[in-house]
């Protein structure tokens, strides 16, 4: 499998490296990083001061060169009525997106003594692995440690591991 990372807006090099490393580690896939793309026209919702996640998926699907493509952006994303999303993907689709905007809180709630940078890197890896999992047909998993567990808060992202549980792994690998 080939996954193309599509940076949208100003995405730092370490974020691209962490995303790439997470995908290679979990899915043993080829990963490329596309040229940076501008934020999609019309994706900004002034009433919410946020961006529509679907438009970033659309962009990744069209410009990405992989079998699976994932947009990464520092913009704050929302989907439908949700206050925000860390990422979004359609089941069995070829496009997905993650936002680093809300992954950058300075702490993991005191659950480890690691640096803010290490915690942020873990979150980026977990989110790209999670969203690509959806494009491979995986739904949310009930196992709290599985990367496919639904995690609406950074605390829940921090609790889960970067890997698929055995059940999810058997479905895709």
Note down, in words, how this protein is organized.
Helices cover 34% and strands 18% of the residues. It contains five helices and eight strands, in the order E-H-E-E-E-H-E-E-E-E-H-H-H. A hairpin with a 5-residue loop joins strand 7 and strand 8. Helix 1 packs across helix 3.
Taking the alpha carbons of the first and last residues, their distance comes to: 11 Å
User: What is the number of strand segments?
Assistant: 8
Main beta sheet, described? 5 strands, mixed
- Report the order of strands and helices: EHEEEHEEEEHHH
Number of helices: 5
Please state roughly what percent of the residues sit in beta strands, choosing from under 5%, 5-15%, 15-25%, 25-35%, 35-45% or over 45%. Answer: 15-25%
Low-confidence stretches: none
Widest sheet, order of strands: 2-1-5-8-7
| Overall morphology | globular
Give the helix level as a range of percent: 25-40%
Structural class: alpha/beta
The gyration radius over C-alpha positions equals 15 Å
Return the average pLDDT rounded to an integer.
95
Task: Give a short summary of the structure.
The chain has 173 residues and is α/β, with parallel strands linked by helices. Helices cover 34% and strands 18% of the residues. Helix 1 crosses helix 3.
């Amino acid at each position: 499998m080939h996954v193309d990372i599509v940076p949208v807006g100003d995405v730092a090099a370490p974020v691209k490296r962490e995303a790439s490393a997470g995908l290679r580690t979990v899915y043993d896939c080829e990963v490329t990083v596309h040229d940076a793309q501008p934020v999609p026209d019309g994706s900004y919702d002034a009433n919410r001061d946020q961006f529509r996640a679907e438009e970033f998926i659309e962009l990744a699907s069209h410009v990405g060169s992989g079998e699976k493509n994932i947009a990464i952006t520092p913009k704050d994303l929302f989907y439908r009525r949700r206050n925000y999303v860390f990422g979004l993907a359609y089941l069995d689709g070829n496009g997905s997106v993650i936002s680093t905007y809300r992954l950058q809180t300075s702490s993991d709630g005191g659950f480890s003594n690691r640096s803010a940078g290490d915690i942020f890197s873990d979150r980026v890896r977990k989110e790209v692995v999670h969203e690509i999992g959806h494009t491979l047909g995986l739904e949310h998993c009930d196992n709290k440690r599985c990367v496919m567990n639904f995690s609406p808060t950074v605390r829940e992202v921090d609790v889960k591991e970067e890997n698929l549980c055995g059940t999810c792994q058997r479905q895709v690998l």
